[in-house]
Amino acid sequence: MRLFPLQAMPAISYFATGIMLTLFGTLCSAASLPDLTPFKANYTAYKWGDDVGEAKMKLEALDNNQFSLTYSSDVSKFFLSDERFEHSIFFVDNEQLIPSQYHYKRTGTGPDSALSIAFTSQPSPQIKIDKTTTLPWKGELDNQLYRLDISRQLAAGNHSVSYDFVNYRGEKRHYGIEVMGKETLSLPYGVVKTIKVKLLRESNTRETFAWFAPSLDYHLVRLQQFKDGDEQGDIKLRSFQPL
């Protein structure tokens, strides 16, 4: 597993900042959003109820109001294996999460894959994918930041939020969220009261559910995904530590 350099791209100019805040305006709300608090969380990964590996998430503060968010997972079952790593470098301005760099790598059974994305503001807002493809940047987040932002929105009492983002394949996607209610979970971490959320997407073949714990600053404590009714994976919180 390789961490990418913990240096965000040069700070954008005042003019460019104004452009970015305009683009990200759809995520703003009347309620003040909580500040980001660095943390690390470990999860146990399951499939069909069996322990198949682990996942880890870590948020670190960098200089100049910048942050690093990493996610890694290592799972195996029978002769199949899958190891993934994501690294986001972003900054916060006027309560908004603004991506700078995103890196993805997957190894294991089947073809390996990797992707690097740079979000740039000059000479115009652009998304550069693997230095070969350029797309207009219209306020999209990266594949991790929308999940991080859901916690903040729930903490602020916002239950109707939608996100435009670029996924780990370099494709633009749009998700909404539906708050399904409160649920008490028994996790490796312990018994936790949670808020259950469903991700709303255009595809009807995949369903993703996420649980966030108010007692842990609304952080993600469980994530479960189905495809065509078949469980693809389920991660449950094992340990959590503010940094």
Notable traits:
single chain; 243 residues; mainly beta; outer membrane lipoprotein receptor (LolB), chain A; 14-stranded antiparallel beta sheet; 9% helix
The CATH first-level class comes to Mainly Beta
Quickly give the structural class. mainly beta
How many helices? 2
CATH topology: outer membrane lipoprotein receptor (LolB), chain A
Q: What is the annotated CATH architecture?
A: Clam
Given as residue ranges, the uncertain stretches (5+ residues, pLDDT < 50) are 5-29
SSE map:
Elements: H1 14-23, E1 39-47, E2 50-61, E3 66-77, E4 80-93, E5 96-108, E6 113-120, E7 126-129, E8 133-136, H2 145-155, E9 162-166, E10 172-187, E11 190-200, E12 206-213, E13 219-227, E14 230-242
Antiparallel strand pairs: 1-2, 1-14, 2-3, 3-4, 4-5, 5-6, 6-7, 7-8, 9-10, 10-11, 11-12, 12-13, 13-14
Provide a quick synopsis of the model.
The protein contains two helices and 14 strands; from the N terminus they run H-E-E-E-E-E-E-E-E-H-E-E-E-E-E-E. The chain is mainly beta.
Written overview of the protein:
The chain has 243 residues and is mainly beta. It has a single domain, classed as outer membrane lipoprotein receptor (LolB), chain A (Clam), CATH 2.50.20. The chain is built from two helices and 14 strands; from the N terminus they run αββββββββαββββββ. The protein has a 14-stranded antiparallel sheet with strand order 8-7-6-5-4-3-2-1-14-13-12-11-10-9. Strand 4 (80-93) and strand 5 form a beta hairpin. The radius of gyration is 18 Å and the shape is globular. Pfam families: DUF3108. This is DUF3108 domain-containing protein. InterPro entries: DUF3108 (IPR021457).
